[in-house]
Amino acid sequence: MTRFPSTEPHHWTTTQTLDALESRRIGAEELLDHALARQHSAAKSINAIIELNEDKARSTARAVDRGEITGRLAGLAMTVKDCYEVDGFTTTAGIPELAGHRPTRDADAIARLRAEGAVIFGKTNVPLAASDHQSYNPIHGVTRNPWDRERSAGGSSGGSAAALAAGLTPLELGSDIGGSIRVPAHYCGVYGHKPTYGIVSSRGHVPPGPGALTPAPLSVCGPLGRSARDLSLALDLLAEGQPGHKLDLTAPRVTSIRGARVALWLDGYPVDDAYRAALMRFADLLQSEGAVVTRLSGPVAAVDPIDDLYFRILFAVIGSGMPDDQIAEFEQAAAELPDHPFADIIAATMRASAAEMAALQERQAAHIANWRSVFEETDIVLAPVAMNSAFPHQVEDGHGPLPQLRRTLTVSGQERPYMENLLWPGAATLAHLPSTVRPLPELVHNMPVGVQMIGDLYGDRTTLAFAAACDRAFGLAPLAPDFR
After folding, report:
1. 180 is catalytic
2. Which of 89, 176, 299, 365 has the highest Cβ tally under 10 A?
């Protein structure tokens, strides 16, 4: 029997909420009313949910209560990131030219959630074109971190993570190419899973543009939630593989902390000293619970910490959708920043030819093979999610990737290029690996922080099972203080 931590539904995880719906402890319409009332009364200060469709959601909830709609998510009132095409909502990805885009067909991932009875009542905020570690855009403004309104909620799934941390939704659908699921989960103290590349359909996700059929390189779609069990449930519903192929994810290598082979990776990229210390204490905690922990003295074997391949592929993808005048602005900015570690690389690869892209992808294949050897002796690689905990907003200098070239972030008293915040999440992205983020048991600089649990290719069930074992051992993360 499910143990409910509170009589208030906004305290429940997805699995607790579904148990309450199934046992009729709460009705679908009653749950929706609670979610809408909480959004109206408690959420204006963070600006996480930027569009509601109460009529369509209420119609679905009533059909669930009448038994006309069933499924594993039947009656679950939830929100989704404003990069997904959803019938009944606009889909803008924060792009002003798409402010009036109202799709009549659901994205594939949305269709799978709705087929299981999900009641989608709102869309959550993102940065312009889903391309920043802050969620703000010219249409909907700035999303603020529920733990500290002056700090970023992360991006691009920042509205998703903020809504979860404030108890406005129990489950969210995000996407990730540069940490866009993992960094918001880390900044807001919630859970997120970046799946193995290709196992969840991205048709109907913007970007690329509306109507695109070709999956974007590196980019994945995946869930955010308030427990590891929530993530596992959602991934089971979302994962499908390619048309004509049956997806068969490998069974979890570990189902408990005891005996799990864990490698702690803290070197190669910048990381805040206090955050590093918290990760080391977490590794100690795992060892006390019976994990076999290896503390690496350098980068993960066979992985080059200064390799520029991730930036080259990422900005080749970004540049492929940009007009020439915007790319020229990047080239000019790069010329003005001779000491920036990635400015020249970014500018050079935004005009990558088909032959150049093919060469990059061949290098990527070799990189993926190198990572496979890591997991011959390790079940889980633990790593930072980003350089630091959530940083103060930097939103006055414009939108999109170009201003990010000129920004810096303070890491243990040292100014680092803003773009370096892509390095820790980029490691799993480049190698197509699954990565689950769960909150650490302690705060750093009075803010939540998370840990990446990186697994072998198609080892999604291993990272999720290990995160669930940590939930059982250390408990679930709380809502942000002002929203408890």
Report:
1. yes
2. 176
